[in-house]
Amino acid sequence: MVRSPPIVYNRTTMHWGAARTSVDTIKRFGELADRGADPADAAKAWTDAGFDDETTAKWLEARCFDPEKARDLADLAVTPGQASKRTRDGAGGDYVDTIAYKVAMGHLSARQGAARASSSR
Q1: Where does the chain have alpha helices with state H?
Q2: Are 48 and 65 a contacting pair, CB within 8 Å?
Q3: What's this model's pTM, rounded to 2 decimal places?
Q4: Among the listed residues 65, 67, 75, 74, the one whose alpha carbon sits nearest the alpha carbon of residue 102
Q5: Nearest residue to 57 via CA among 10, 7, 21
Q6: What gap in Å lies between CA 101 and CA 79, rounded to an integer?
Q7: Would 101 disulfide with which of 27, 97, 106, 107, CB 3.0-4.6 Å?
Q8: Is pLDDT of 3 > 70?
Q9: Rg from Cα positions in the chain
Q10: How far apart are CA 118 and CA 92, in angstroms?
Q11: Is residue 114 domain-resident?
């Protein structure tokens, strides 16, 4: 069997089958996803956090715009669907938004978000 050479993006070696987030996925969500920076940098950050296009899109739809915070939640077994629950809890004022958003903004810790994601209230 002949293997294809690895794909090289910005000097980072990526292998076929490795999770990768494309610039197109980031562009679909606009400035909320790229934070006004280069979409390629945002795509790399999501890739570095271990997310592919489909999973990145799910986290962005849940309003988690920080790949490191999404990874923290995922490492605590929280899915984007669970993190999309809305809550009034957390610091930063009395407003309702998704658990994912509040974790991304630092208004809830990942552990607090995980506890709320698994609760039935």
Answers
A1: 23-28, 31-34, 39-48, 53-61, 67-75, 80-83, 99-104, 110-118
A2: no
A3: 0.81
A4: 65
A5: 21
A6: 13
A7: 97
A8: no
A9: 16
A10: 22
A11: yes
In a domain, 61, yes or no: yes
Parent domain of 36 = 20-118
Nearest to 59 by CA among 91, 84, 96: 84
Check if the beta carbon of residue 105 is closer than 8 Å to that of residue 92. Answer: yes
Q: Is residue 80 part of a domain?
A: yes
pLDDT of 22 above 80: yes
| Tokens 């986290």 belong to residue | 59
CB contact set of 23 (below 8 Å; sequence gap of 6+)? 39, 40, 43
Give the separation between CA 44 and CA 67, rounded to whole angstroms: 10
- What pLDDT score was predicted for residue 87? 95
Within-domain flag for 43? yes
Q: Which residues, 6 or more positions from 35, have their beta carbon under 8 angstroms from its beta carbon?
A: 42, 65
Nearest of 116, 92, 91 to residue 100 by alpha carbon: 116
